[in-house]
């Protein structure tokens, strides 16, 4: 017999209100930025615009799309993300698979070799000196290589392989004369698409959003990823958005559009991820869950 | 019998033979390890070896190996400097502040778990995860916009209610609150995923039995749900402790300015400043080493405490 008591109903009500308050606090800033990006800057800075767009204008986006630095940063970020994710998978997957095979000797030793990097690392300065001595300063590799793969990802992918690749399958193929290369590429990888997607997505999001490696390793502006350009526009307030030809815009107008550009640039840089993730959310959640399996 | 190979009947092989045979048969598996092993050696173990510059006077032309040893001079200089206590205090307070808010994602997970309407639950999850996908640069950019002393929304609200505008971003008093709570905004939903998963594994029979005994929803949360996910909580707490001294300094660096440096100067930003901006590699490496030594000590300490009192630990 299910009995919904009065206190149960009260609990549901309070719980729902609690969640709604949290949702509003989390979502409101996002909606505000989105609305502000297409509203008249005057309305935004005077407070007339507080939720929905007022006096819709796309001037901010026009300015963003007319800006070469932003385009170049966007292009660089896309390249770094794609190349970096490809290398990530190339390093991660074979290693995690090998660590999942029981015929691997000295497995404990290799696992410790990997895990120890989680516990201790050389730190900022020694890492910087190594990257520098390898000649990667001011190249794409300085963005990609220092964080190619983490011990955590290897553990997660290994756990997946252990659970979902049947031993008999591999052994039978080996008896049939298949090499480990063949088995890995033609049989294991096609069976492992979920974990490949999870790992690729996690890494791609990190690459897309990171700025620090670029900050310390790059000095050539043409190689800046989007996040460094954003840092200049949003945080350091060093805008180089004025038309070089010397526009007729007054200083007041320039300050006004400067605000508008900030909102538009936030949307332009964040929207790809915010639009994509709800559709691949289950992969992300899966990744967190496999990662939580304790060994 | 001739011609029949049977592993069981083969006389005991020497260890060396076994290794050789395994390698001959499975050498490709070892090739699989090569890219990762090369990466960890080049970008983790060589920098670890490079940590020795903390005990040396590093000269670029002499290299890591050739630079002269000077022992603990850099550490002494750091411990005796006037900014040492300020850096340590700022780092500890900022970390402790974040650690106090550690239960918030747990509370969100417990609350989401009680929602019966599936569609509402799904939407709530998707929306609370969203900030996780926004970059730290954009988050700080949004902080700058919302807290602007004249045009920012927060200050307009303060004015509306008759208060005086606050310049949050240049105020040492406000730095810690702004830093920590914007972090809560960004990580609250994402942090709850793991607890939600743990909650979905709670044995429903426990709840049925408790219902029969007349336990209320709140009682069941406290006496069934929370104890059931306690192992998860402990493990994540220890993991958090392991990065206690790191304090998300990439965000601190973005929010830092001369005016709020009194509270925003933390050990890691100091390492960045002295090492990479001023080129005092050895001194900065020593400070970084001090920082990670504390991290490891805390991790080991809390892990052993957790193992003693609750049977849950990382190792």
TrEMBL record, chain A:
Q: Please give the start and end residues of each transmembrane region.
A: 12-38, 78-97, 109-129, 141-161, 181-205, 260-280
Q: Where in the cell is it found?
A: Cell membrane
Residues in a coiled coil are none
Q: Which UniProt keywords apply?
A: Cell membrane, Membrane, Transmembrane, Transmembrane helix, Transport
Pfam families in the cross-refs: BPD_transp_1 (PF00528)
Major localization class = membrane
Indicate the segments forming the ABC transmembrane type-1 domain, all copies: 74-273
Q: Which InterPro entries match?
A: MetI-like, MetI-like_sf
| Membrane-topology descriptor | Multi-pass membrane protein
The Swiss-Prot or TrEMBL record describes its family as follows: Belongs to the binding-protein-dependent transport system permease family.
Cite the PANTHER family for this sequence.
Answer: ABC TRANSPORTER PERMEASE PROTEIN MG189-RELATED-RELATED (PTHR43744), POLYGALACTURONAN_RHAMNOGALACTURONAN TRANSPORT SYSTEM PERMEASE PROTEIN YTCP (PTHR43744:SF9)
Protein name in the entry:
Sugar ABC transporter permease
From TrEMBL, chain B:
The listed locations are:
Cell membrane
* One Pfam family named in its UniProt record: BPD_transp_1
> Which positions make up the signal peptide?
none
Query: TM segments?
Result: 27-46, 92-112, 133-158, 178-200, 221-245, 281-302
The similarity annotation says:
Belongs to the binding-protein-dependent transport system permease family.
PANTHER family, A to Z: BLL4140 PROTEIN (PTHR43227:SF11)
Q: What is this protein called?
A: Sugar ABC transporter permease
Q: What organism is listed for this UniProt entry?
A: Oceanobacillus neutriphilus
């Amino acid at each position: 017999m299910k009995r919904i008591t009065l206190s149960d109903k009260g609990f549901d009500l309070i719980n729902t209100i609690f969640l709604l308050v949290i949702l509003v606090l989390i979502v409101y800033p996002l909606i505000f930025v989105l609305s502000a990006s297409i509203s008249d800057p005057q309305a935004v800075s005077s407070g007339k615009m507080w939720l929905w767009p007022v006096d819709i204008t796309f001037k901010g986006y026009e300015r963003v799309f007319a800006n070469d630095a932003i385009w170049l940063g966007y292009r660089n970020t896309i390249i770094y993300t794609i190349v970096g994710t490809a290398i990530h998978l190339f390093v991660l997957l074979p290693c995690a698979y090998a660590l999942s095979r029981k015929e691997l000797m000295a497995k404990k030793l290799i696992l410790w070799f990997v895990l120890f990097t989680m516990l201790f690392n050389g730190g900022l300065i020694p890492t910087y000196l190594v990257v520098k001595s390898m000649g990667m300063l001011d190249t794409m590799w300085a963005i990609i290589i220092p964080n190619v793969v983490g011990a955590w990802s290897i553990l997660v992918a290994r756990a997946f392989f252990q659970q979902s690749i049947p031993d008999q399958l591999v052994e039978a193929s080996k008896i049939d004369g298949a090499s480990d290369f063949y088995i890995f590429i033609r049989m294991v990888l096609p069976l492992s698409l979920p974990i490949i997607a999870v790992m690729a997505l996690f890494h791609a999001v990190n690459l897309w959003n990171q700025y620090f490696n670029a900050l310390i390793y790059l000095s050539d502006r043409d190689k800046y990823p989007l996040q460094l350009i954003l840092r200049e526009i949003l945080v350091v307030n060093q805008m180089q958005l004025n038309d070089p030809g010397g526009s007729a815009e007054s200083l007041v107008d320039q300050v006004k559009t400067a605000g508008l550009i900030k909102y538009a640039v936030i949307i332009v840089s964040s929207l790809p991820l915010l639009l994509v993730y709800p559709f691949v959310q289950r992969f992300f959640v899966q990744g967190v869950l496999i990662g939580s399996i304790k060994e | 019998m001739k011609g029949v190979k049977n592993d069981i009947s083969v006389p005991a092989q020497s260890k060396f033979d076994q290794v050789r045979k395994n390698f001959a048969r499975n050498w490709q598996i070892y090739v699989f390890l090569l890219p990762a092993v090369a990466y960890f050696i080049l970008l983790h173990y060589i920098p670890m070896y490079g940590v020795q510059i903390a005990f040396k006077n590093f000269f670029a032309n002499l290299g890591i190996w050739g630079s002269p040893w000077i022992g603990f001079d850099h550490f002494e200089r750091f411990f005796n400097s006037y900014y040492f206590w300020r850096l340590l205090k700022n780092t500890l307070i900022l970390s402790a502040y974040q650690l106090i808010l550690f239960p918030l994602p747990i509370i969100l997970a417990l609350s989401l778990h009680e929602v019966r309407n599936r569609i509402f639950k799904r939407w709530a999850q998707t929306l609370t995860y969203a900030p996780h996908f926004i970059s730290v640069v954009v988050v700080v950019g949004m902080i700058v916009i919302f807290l602007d002393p004249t045009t920012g929304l927060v200050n307009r609200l303060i004015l509306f209610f008759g208060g005086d505008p606050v310049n949050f971003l240049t105020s040492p008093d406000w730095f810690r609150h702004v830093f920590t709570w914007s972090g809560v905004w960004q990580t609250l939903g994402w942090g709850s995923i793991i607890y939600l998963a743990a909650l979905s594994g709670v044995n429903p029979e426990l709840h049925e039995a408790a219902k029969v005994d007349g336990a209320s929803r709140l009682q069941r949360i406290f006496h069934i749900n929370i104890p059931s996910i306690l192992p998860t909580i402990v493990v994540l707490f220890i993991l958090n402790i392991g990065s206690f001294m790191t304090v998300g300094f990439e965000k601190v660096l973005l929010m830092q300015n001369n005016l709020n440096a009194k509270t925003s100067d933390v050990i890691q930003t100091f390492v960045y400043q002295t090492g990479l901006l001023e080129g005092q590699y050895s001194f900065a490496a020593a400070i970084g080493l001090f920082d990670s030594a504390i991290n490891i000590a805390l991790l080991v300490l809390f892990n052993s405490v957790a193992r003693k009192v609750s049977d849950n630990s990382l190792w």
